[in-house]
């Protein structure tokens, strides 16, 4: 039996469902293109309650997480969120995650749905000192309100000024429709927006109310299909595609979240070596020149030699270009390098391009009036 | 969802329309709806032979790639070039502007073996 989020009954009848990471999730409500466009130009609401939440607390919580994650959590203040990675000794990736610093020694780790059990077990294996671990995934519903109108949709219903919540910051216990939510200015779409966390049993109420208050400004419910095309355009990695237990964050171009100058953490030695020597392969943005759409797993060639594979690809709904990510030998990983993608036994011309494929113009922190 | 009576259908969700001694082929309303926004079509060249139940091309939506299966044996005599620039025609008009190829069948009677609209509806349970 596939798992369902607490929001499931609200959209069961009005969306097309797919199985994702063991969950029955909506892939689209209307069309992926329409939902994608709504998020780029107005606003979209996503149920992302399948994501996991693990609470780490205790007087050694910071020390513990510093030893397990690659980013420097001491640089993250209370009320801030930090993108980080859990790595193996070899430096390959167990998961990528967002760490919320709720209190000085209390953190909420938001992890990928398919990795909840694996991550929790990994944390337990290394648990030491005064550290308490609680898997709160079942207790918490998570919604993502994304798009240029997200702030102006929320503002009339909040006592606080949303512009005081800067990107990668959050506020706990924010009253919204008589629900206490964690309001976080984060997302996975390349747009301004918020992620909201609330008790699981109130998630469906929050979902319905948000759709209701946003309707006038063009807010629509969105599925995982649009979430994928949005994150791809924004150049954001997806665990299982751009990251995996065989891919390191250095290879995936996430060096900004690997702080090799901080004290020992699992995977540090391997990652330091790789950073110094330069990784043998690197994740690049690709754009098709010839006819075809790059898709996960397609081989990449240059001069008759296989040099890697496509990790994700689609036709960009914003630019119509056929874009993707590929993990290729580093000697070919420079911008403007011509490569070929093998699509159904034909090699089609493509080019290495900078990431992200899309960058928004609008400044964060301004309510659109 | 519509399934015109005058067309014949396959389990792989293609439709076939007899036009004199040729047949026009496309994918059904059900198929386009399942796929979602179609963004790319790969079709055979004019003159190419197609063989029943084997792939003659591909159709790609934002998210997925699906093969197109030939309903009958025959030779391609026309290809809908419009779909190259406007693949969304398949979503908007699967039985008209969204047609894919016209084929000269080796045996026009093969079409009689295909599903009727009623039979196809049973296959997709609508």
Automatic annotation (TrEMBL), chain A:
A Pfam family annotated for this UniProt entry: GCV_T_C
CC annotations in GO: cytosol; glycine cleavage complex
Binding site for substrate: 195
Entry keywords, A to Z: Aminotransferase, Methyltransferase, Transferase
Top-level division of the source organism's lineage: Bacteria
Reaction equation(s) it catalyzes: N(6)-[(R)-S(8)-aminomethyldihydrolipoyl]-L-lysyl-[protein] + (6S)-5,6,7,8-tetrahydrofolate = N(6)-[(R)-dihydrolipoyl]-L-lysyl-[protein] + (6R)-5,10-methylene-5,6,7,8-tetrahydrofolate + NH4(+)
Biological process according to GO: glycine decarboxylation via glycine cleavage system; methylation
Ranges where the GCVT N-terminal domain occurs: 13-262
EC number(s) per entry: 2.1.2.10
Keyword match Transmembrane: no
Domain (Aminomethyltransferase C-terminal): residue spans on this chain: 281-359
Single GO MF descriptor: methyltransferase activity
Function of the protein: The glycine cleavage system catalyzes the degradation of glycine.
Family: Belongs to the GcvT family.
The protein's assembly and partners: The glycine cleavage system is composed of four proteins: P, T, L and H.
Descriptive protein name: Aminomethyltransferase
Species: Seinonella peptonophila
Gene this chain is encoded by: gcvT
Automatic annotation (TrEMBL), chain B:
Regions annotated as coiled coil: none
Span of the signal peptide: none
InterPro entries per record: 2-oxoA_DH_lipoyl-BS, Biotin_lipoyl, GCV_H, GCV_H/Fam206, GCV_H_sub, Single_hybrid_motif
Cofactor: (R)-lipoate
Annotated keywords: Lipoyl
Cofactor detail note: Binds 1 lipoyl cofactor covalently.
One Pfam family hit: GCV_H
Keyword Acyltransferase appears in the UniProt entry: no
Residue numbers bearing the N6-lipoyllysine modification: 63
GO cellular component: cytosol; glycine cleavage complex
Domain Lipoyl-binding: 22-104
Gene3D superfamilies reported in the protein's UniProt record: 2.40.50.100
Origin: domain of life: Bacteria
The keyword Ribonucleoprotein is assigned to this record: no
One Gene Ontology biological process: protein lipoylation
UniProt-listed NCBIfam families: gcvH (TIGR00527), PRK01202.1 (NF002270)
Subunit: The glycine cleavage system is composed of four proteins: P, T, L and H.
Annotated PANTHER family: GLYCINE CLEAVAGE SYSTEM H PROTEIN, GLYCINE CLEAVAGE SYSTEM H PROTEIN-RELATED
Role played: Is also involved in protein lipoylation via its role as an octanoyl/lipoyl carrier protein intermediate.
Family listed: Belongs to the GcvH family.
Protein name (database record): Glycine cleavage system H protein
Species, as recorded: Seinonella peptonophila
């Amino acid at each position: 039996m596939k798992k369902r989020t607490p929001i499931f009954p609200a959209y069961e009848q009005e969306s097309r469902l797919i199985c994702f990471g063991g969950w029955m999730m909506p892939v689209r409500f209307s069309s992926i293109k329409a939902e994608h466009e709504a998020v780029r130009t107005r606003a979209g609401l996503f149920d992302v309650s399948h994501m996991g939440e693990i609470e780490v607390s205790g007087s050694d919580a910071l020390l513990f997480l510093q030893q397990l994650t690659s980013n420097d959590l001491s640089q993250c203040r209370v009320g801030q969120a930090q993108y980080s990675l859990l790595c193996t000794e070899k430096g390959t990736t167990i998961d990528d995650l967002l760490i919320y610093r709720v209190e000085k020694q209390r953190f909420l780790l938001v992890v990928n749905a398919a990795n909840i059990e694996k991550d929790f077990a990994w944390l337990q294996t290394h648990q030491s000192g005064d550290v308490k671990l609680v898997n709160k995934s079942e207790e918490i519903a998570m919604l993502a309100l994304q798009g240029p109108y997200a702030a102006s949709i929320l503002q009339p219903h909040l006592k606080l000024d949303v512009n005081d919540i800067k990107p990668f910051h959050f506020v706990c216990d924010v009253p919204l429709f008589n629900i206490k939510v964690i309001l976080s200015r984060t997302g996975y779409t390349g747009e301004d927006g918020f992620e909201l966390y609330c008790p699981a049993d109130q998630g469906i109420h929050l979902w319905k109310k948000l759709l209701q208050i946003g309707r006038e400004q063009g807010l629509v419910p969105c599925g995982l299909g649009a979430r994928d095309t949005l994150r791809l355009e924004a150049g954001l990695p997806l665990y299982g595609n751009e990251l995996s237990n065989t891919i390191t964050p250095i290879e995936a171009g996430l060096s900004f979240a690997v702080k090799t100058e901080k004290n020992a953490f699992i995977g540090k030695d391997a990652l330091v070596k790789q950073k110094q020597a330069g990784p043998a392969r690197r994740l690049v943005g690709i754009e098709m020149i010839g006819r075809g759409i790059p898709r996960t797993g397609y081989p990449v060639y240059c001069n008759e030699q296989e040099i890697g594979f496509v990790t994700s690809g689609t036709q960009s709904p914003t630019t119509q270009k056929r874009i993707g990510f590929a993990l290729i030998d580093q000697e070919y990983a420079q911008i403007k390098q011509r490569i070929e993608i093998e699509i159904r036994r034909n090699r089609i011309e493509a080019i290495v391009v900078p990431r992200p494929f899309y960058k928004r113009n609008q400044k964060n922190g301004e309510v659109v009036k | 969802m519509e399934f015109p009576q005058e067309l014949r259908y396959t389990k792989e969700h293609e439709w076939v329309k007899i036009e004199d001694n040729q047949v026009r082929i496309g994918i059904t309303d059900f198929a386009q709806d399942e796929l979602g926004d179609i963004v790319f079509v790969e079709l055979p060249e004019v003159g190419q032979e197609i063989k029943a139940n084997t792939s003659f091309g591909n159709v790609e939506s934002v998210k997925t790639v699906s093969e197109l299966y030939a309903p009958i044996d025959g030779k391609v005599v026309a290809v809908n070039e419009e779909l190259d620039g406007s693949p969304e025609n398949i979503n908007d008009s699967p039985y008209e502007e969204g047609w894919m190829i016209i084929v000269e069948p080796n045996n026009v009677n093969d079409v009689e073996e295909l599903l009727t609209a009623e039979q196809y509806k049973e296959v997709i349970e609508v």
